[in-house]
Amino acid sequence: MIPVNEPLLGKAELKYVSEAIETNWISSEGRFIREFEAGFASYCGRRHGIAVNNGTSALMLAMRALNLPAGSEVIMPSFTIISCALACIYNDLVPVFVDSDPRLNLDPEQVLQVIGPQTRAIMPVHIYGQPADMETLEQIAREHSLVIVEDFAEAIGSRYHDRMCGSFGEVSCASFYANKTLTTGEGGMCLTDDDQLAEELRKLRNLAFIPERRFVHEQLGFNFRMTNIQAAIGLAQLERIEQQVESKIQIGETYNALLAGLEEDGKLHLPPRRSGVVNTYWMYPLMLTKNTDFDAVVFADKLRDRGIQTRPFFYPLHLQPAFEQFSWHRRQSLPECESAYRRGLYIPSGLTLTRGLQEQVAEAVVGVLAC
Ligand SMILES: *Cc1c(COP(=O)(O)O)cnc(C)c1O
Questions:
Q1: Which residue has the CA at smallest separation from atom 4 of ligand 1?
Q2: Distance, CA 368 to ligand 1 centroid (Å)?
Q3: pLDDT in tens, 356-368
């Protein structure tokens, strides 16, 4: 079976983790935390990095630190991970779901349509490494005085018009889960250019302790601290980030070439190629066209029979059973993301893939769609 992803870990990771253990710095203090925060922020073109224990925590922390009034609406794509909505719900904010554009990202047209008196923020997500239409979203945010919280968990190293993903809006949130382009096993980070917001994020990450009066708390914080051991892995990965991002792009472009025939034959939609953006192909998504008479579940079964592991697309957030209990829940139909869910999956895309393995994957995909 060719796995959908495997992390790529090297000798530097082992060396730094050993150092953390040998020097007894295993909690959330230590040199690796500081160097990883500063190094990753600088890689993304940001002033401050606040490392946390996972990407969901990063989103949760960001939404808390922004201190939006209770009941404020946050516009986000329906086609994303549940973490985006949870970060709002647990902070008494209301997620508002909109449909996707043809690249599976938040559709700016639909963002405009749902802006109302309670709207305070937009949360764009760069799905599968493909940058969202940030210039249009920034313009909308400016015109309507909205905050942007960028989820770039799937787009480490991606660029939009020469600007790094992770550098947009008030806060950007990353995940360093094992399948992400840079990993710490579990981990995440908030990035910001705002000194005051950075301080607030740091305080709330650490139970809202205040240095002047230890154990007196004026705010409700979280323990979202990252350990020095996680940061040791992260710093080692960061030293190779350019290569890792380059490999991801290579893997994506190799699939583009190997699968081009199926796109020409009208059997598959490949990720759209656009000028002015760098897609880092976090995961390589395939979408069956209307010319195919089976859905993504059957497609995945057929690929598994040929030794290829895949993962389904996101189940749209507007259809999540867990949200039916809320007064803000609305029955709605968002055709693009519903159809993407039925027709899409992603194929092996990890950093350990070789050209030979990619050829095997492509051969299997061609084989399944030929019969
Ligand atoms: C992976 C991911 C996250 C957060 O993931 P964690 O598993 O909590 O680290 C958030 N948003 C998106 C879009 C993701 O892909």
A1: 55
A2: 31
A3: 999 999 999 999 9
